Amino acid sequence: MRARFGFLVLGLALTAGCAGGKSCSELQDDYTQALPSALLCDPAAANQCQQQAMSPGSCSCGTTVQDPTQLNAIVAQLRQQGCIPAQQLACPCAAPQQLTCVSNGGSSGSCIVQARSGG
């Protein structure tokens, strides 16, 4: 009976997050929701869409964005709570994609994959 209680407490801790914080699943959702904002850029400015954000998964593959600040903060929380390893694995990653800032029809834009020229 005592072992079942221990598993129940462990399960509740993993679901609820540490010290009343968000759960791993909630933090993963936060990362997904923050990604579009990290891709916002200024099409009139130079050197846009060149920063690397940390990965929210177990591999060390990052993603190219304009502003990685919020994404990296979420990854730090995921690590602190033990949701992902402190030292991420060096998995085979896809080559980093070249992104370019494309206007959204106004003064702002979004980082999108740069079209390859030639063939």
Mean pLDDT: 81
The low-confidence runs, each spanning 5 or more residues with pLDDT under 50, are 1-18
What is the number of helices? 3
Instruction: Tell me the helix content.
Output: 25-40%
Order of secondary-structure elements: HHEEEHEE
Inertia-based shape: globular
Main β-sheet, spatial strand arrangement: 1-5-4
The count of DSSP E runs of length 2 or more, i.e. the number of strands, is 5
Query: How large is the share of residues in beta strands?
Result: 15-25%
Rg is 18 Å
Largest beta-sheet characterization:
3 strands, antiparallel
Q: Supply the helix-strand structural class.
A: alpha+beta
Number of domains: 1
Distance, first to last CA: 67 Å
Describe it for me?
The protein is an alpha+beta fold and 119 residues long. Helix content is 35%, strand content 15%. It has 3 helices and 5 strands; from the N terminus they run ααβββαββ. It has helices at residues 2-16, 24-38, 69-80; strands at residues 40-41, 51-53, 63-65, 99-103, 109-113. The strands form 2 sheets. The protein has a 3-stranded antiparallel beta sheet. A two-stranded antiparallel ribbon has the order 2-3. Strand 4 and strand 5 (109-113) form a beta hairpin. Helix 2 (24-38) packs antiparallel against helix 3. The chain is globular and about 40 Å long. The N and C termini lie far apart (67 Å).
